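Record 1 of the preview.
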Amino acid sequence: MGIATYLMKPFKHSELLVSLGALLRPDASAKPILPMAPDEEEKMAPLNILLAEDNVVNQRLAARLLERMGHGVVVAATGREVLAKLEEQSFDLVLMDVQMPGMDGFAATAAIREKEQPGQLHLPIIAMTAHAMNRDRQLCMEAGMDDYIAKPIDIKQLKQAMRQVTLARTRPDRESREFSLDDLSLSGREASSTREAVDTEGPA
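->
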C-alpha cells in the first residue's frame, strides 16, 4: 500500500508532530515497524506481550497496534530492560528487536534461554529485524528465537507468527516464571559471535 505510518483518532498534536518528524527526517538505522493498520481477521486470545524496541516512534505504533488487537503491552528499550521486566511480571510472548543499544536482542535471548530448563518454562520470542535474508532467519533460530519477522512488519505475518509460537504453549505457574539477573551467566563469546555475523550484513 505504500503507507509509511498512521495515526488513530483522536490523536494528540504532539503525536502528529512526532510522526511528521519521522517522515521528514528519516533515520536509516530505524526502519518503520508498522506499515499499515490492522485488518479485520479473527482475533487471537489476549496475550501479555513484552515489546523490546529502542525506537520511540516504533514503540508507540507497535504498542497501539497490539492493544487494538486486544493484547496487553509492556515496552523495553534494551535487552537489559527486557530481563528486568521479566523479573517483575510474567509474559506470554516477547517481540524482540535484534539490534538495540547495550545488550541487544541476541544477548537478551541467550540469557532468557540459559535460565530455562528442559520441560519447564519456554517463553516464545519473535525476532524483529530489518534484515530479510534466509541466513538472518537462521541466525535468529540458532540464537534461541522461535520465529522471525522482517521490518517493516506485515500485520498478517505478525499475527501468523504470534499464533504459531503460542499455539501449543501451556501457562506455567507463577513461581516457575521468576527470573533473576543474578542467575544469568550469559556467554559473551557466543552472543558476540552471533551479533558480529548479523552486523556484517549492514545496519538495521
